[in-house]
């Protein structure tokens, strides 16, 4: 792997990966002839071996750095270790060091993990800070346009435009009472729950209207 040799019990590889089971069958009985693996780095492969040999003794996602779970996800996806991949996905979901929304979008696209998209879109929809240029370059024009539409729709509804009630997730810096009348619009005290629900509704409309099967 990337010029680095690993001496591994073939049992684990044949048991858990149909891909490697096929590759190993072609060198049955041949000694001193390493199999070259492509599409995975030596560090990622090392994380996979670490999981196969020692992972069963670990408990809890946060006992292992999230970078190791990401390496495991990369190797398991490339080499078709389905159970290791599922374990990595669950560990990343439960990690307190989970990547930010932009990174989760990129990972979801790269590894085909559609369930990570909707929560990432919702977080970006209600995020106070605008989309940065570096972020836009990473996620592509199509997502930039849709995220901009979602954020604008969320902002309009948060501000109570067109008679809609305000549901901004951000606490007001002004000493307004919990309920007040402004130009015929009734505002209400914002709550995180209302903000998430409103952002989710907008995200579903903009991103998933024509492909609702993506939403789990």
From TrEMBL:
Pfam families: BTB (PF00651). Gene3D superfamilies: Potassium Channel Kv1.1, Chain A. Residues 1-55 form the BTB domain. This is BTB domain-containing protein.
